[in-house]
Amino acid sequence: MLSNYFKIAWRNLFRHKVHTSINIIGLAVGIAACLLIFVVVHYELSYDRFQKNYDRIYRIVSDNKGRSGNENPNPGVPVPAVEAFRTDFPQFSKMAATNSIYGSQLTVLGNNPNSDVALSKKFKEELGVIFTQPAYFDIFNTTWLSGNAQSLSAPGSVILDKTTASKYFGDWSKAEGQYLKLDNTVTLKVTGVIEDAPQNSDFPIKIFVSYESFKQYPAKYDYTTDWGSLSSSHQLYVLLPENVAASGIQALMPGFVKKHYSNGGIGKVHLLQPMKEFHFDHRYGTLGEHSSSKTILWTLALIGALIIVMASINFINLSTAQAVGRSKEVGIRKVLGSNRGQLIAQVIGETFLIVLFSVLIALGIAKVMMPYLSHVADTPANLSLVNADTILFLAAVLVTVTLLSGVYPAMIVSGFKPALALKSKISSASVGGISLRRVLVVTQFAISQVLIIGTIVAVSQMNFVRNADLGFNKDAILVLPSFSDSINLARMKPLKRTLLQNPDVISVSFSSDVPSSDNNWSSNFYFDHDSKDLEFNTYQKFGDEDYFKTYGLQLVAGRTFSASDTMREVLVNETMEKKLGITDPEKMIGKTLRIGGSGSWLPIVGVVKDFKTNSLREDIKPTTIAERNNDYYTIGVKIKTTRLTQTTAQIKQLWENTYPEYTFDSQFLDESIERFYQQENQLSLLYKIFAGIAIFISCLGLYGLVSYMAVQRTREVGIRKVLGASVAHIVYLFSKEFTFLILIAFVIATPVAWYMMSNWLHNFVYRINFSIGVFAVAIIISVTIAWITVGYKAVRAALANPVKSLRSE
């Protein structure tokens, strides 16, 4: 019996090659897309779950609330808060502070701590260097290859991961006891080597330097005992005991804030952030370069499910349309004794075969596309496709799609009455086909149009971001590293003078960072000789007298500061002016500010027009700009665009001659700003891809239906042509119904797409207007594609010789 079912199923598939191919191709493409989405979502959700203390690890974060109620989230805590938390919260099992440093240079000294730095090997580490305490390794999983955590109790000690130790010393086993120099300032002895962090870790730390070393170099790494100074780089991680609830600890935080902060800690908040939120909370970020959004992941999962549904709709449409052609077969089977269950099993079996072929082809498609996955998602290039989880997923897809695609056609076919079937009185209308197929076509195109609208909105927003007025000039500015230790401070002015002698260099500025960055260096401050600090922090940037000229910042009142090496004057932005309750920028001139609790009162000499201090996702922050050469870590060089390549090479040569003990590293400002939006750009690309897949699957189904209609209405078309119908009229006959259905789909898709994309746009403070033009473009695209799909087959049917179609009449 089973053998007979298999033979018949196989013959039916081959008898209808076109429809079988459409079903298999549609399902294979849909399943492949869904499989790749599953790989991405599964990988993102796996972050940090390998940690044995995953449910008990928390980070203490800060949130400063201003008078207006605006929140200013910061992942850091003030440096003195570490010991205060240790004293006030004995409930914590373990606690470890970290201070991240970015773009650091490690120089390999070998077994001689006094080796010549200029002649030694140098490595630039953009990410993965932190100062930390021994307890860090009690909180987070660690596999020790040599040494132990207690060695980090002493200043001047460093622990490396296996890959870094091998990179520096050739063989990780030879690393312990060797010496390194951090930023040409701190001499470090390697006291241990650990295994690399897994790829799905938010803690891709490669180099662990003792926290005591951080304390020993306060000027270099901004160690301070000022409660008003807050850096996102300085973070605190705690491990809660198994019997202690986070809610109980959180309830004690207000008392801690009131006890330790000046002015009773008004506007200051500390929160316990669980590890399960680290990877998905953009407000606080992670120690790595990549975080994700659960909203985006669930959106991707939903898109994957919808694409599978669309492919299944194709199957149902074509199967129900073909059911008429099987009516005699079903009638004969029923007369010979087949029951309904056996007929259902036969149709389900045929569906299973098609879906099985589709799954195997989908696996091949996904395998081919895997190397390109890292271009549209933050996944490692070596991510495995075939594993236990994906096999289980594909098995679930196989069963689900078989049932989703096969049950309804099976119920329709098995329900034919033998008498009607044998007399060929089963029609398309009698299989529930017309109304059902209309609903399914509407569903398909509604999904497609949601994705088309999403694509248009995402692309428009990213174009807006790319071309937005940032309030400063980002073009042709080469950004180089600078160093503020005592030796290099003397090199700044000669380097600047030499750079300006180049006729292709327009201006040069030393600064703490560029105008728009991910830096959130903030501090409490006092205004106009008031004895109480403000309820919000000021975000600080330091730059020399040419900072405004180089980056094209504009003044709305006052002047820029005079040349100085220390903070003597300060400028504020318009946002700061407004938050201080002053409406006339001229009235800000002459007022005074004091940064932190122990600084000098500084006169405000100018108000600068607001510029985007961070990405366009965020509000402009209240910002102060002053001079302080001890904090100049960046050189901005404005270059003429006529000889960009040659000038960049000349600047590199000069920089290397000036800083022979450092490695050269540079980037253009517009490129660094573009990286702010890597995830959004990837999402925009994903929308394009999935919208294309959805349109492809919809068109496959539409083509299959029109092909079937053309066969079913061959004689009708012949008669109409004999009676004088034109080609245009025949094409209209085939197209009008589908056009109407697409318009209905558009009405359904519009509110859904508006809701989804409005929520996405709210991730940006600065965003496009969601205009009616977006929807107009979407419906034009949908109708045009449908007409092209239907038109090809309709024209062929209209051009067919009516004599041939009527010969059998």
Structural class: alpha+beta
**Could you tell me how far the N terminus lies from the C terminus, measured between alpha carbons in angstroms?**
40 Å
Mean pLDDT: 84
Give me the number of helical elements.
24
**Helix fraction by DSSP (H/I, runs of at least 4):** 40-55%
Spatial extent as radius of gyration:
34 Å
**Uncertain regions: pLDDT < 50 for 5+ in a row?**
419-423, 425-434
The major beta sheet can be summarized as:
13 strands, mixed
Shape: elongated
Count of the domains:
4
Number of distinct beta strands? 26
Strand percentage = 15-25%
Name the features.
single chain; 809 residues; alpha+beta; 4 domains; 13-stranded mixed beta sheet; nine-stranded mixed beta sheet; 16% strand; elongated
What does this structure look like?
- By secondary structure, the chain is α+β, with helices and mostly antiparallel strands.
- It folds into four domains: 1-47 and 293-431, no CATH class; 57-280, no CATH class; 452-466 and 677-809, no CATH class; 484-661, no CATH class.
- Helices cover 48% and strands 16% of the residues.
- The chain contains 24 helices and 26 strands.
- The strands form three sheets. Strands 1, 2, 3, 4, 5, 6, 7, 8, 9, 10, 11, 13 and 14 form a 13-stranded mixed beta sheet that branches.
- A hairpin with a 5-residue loop joins strand 1 (57-65) and strand 2 (71-74).
- Helix 2 (17-45) packs antiparallel against helix 20, helix 9 runs parallel beside helix 12 and helix 15 (486-500) packs antiparallel against helix 18 (644-658).
- The longest helix is centred in the middle third of the chain and has 37 residues, at 340-376.
- It is elongated, with a radius of gyration of 34 Å.
- Mean pLDDT is 84; it is low at 419-423 and 425-434.
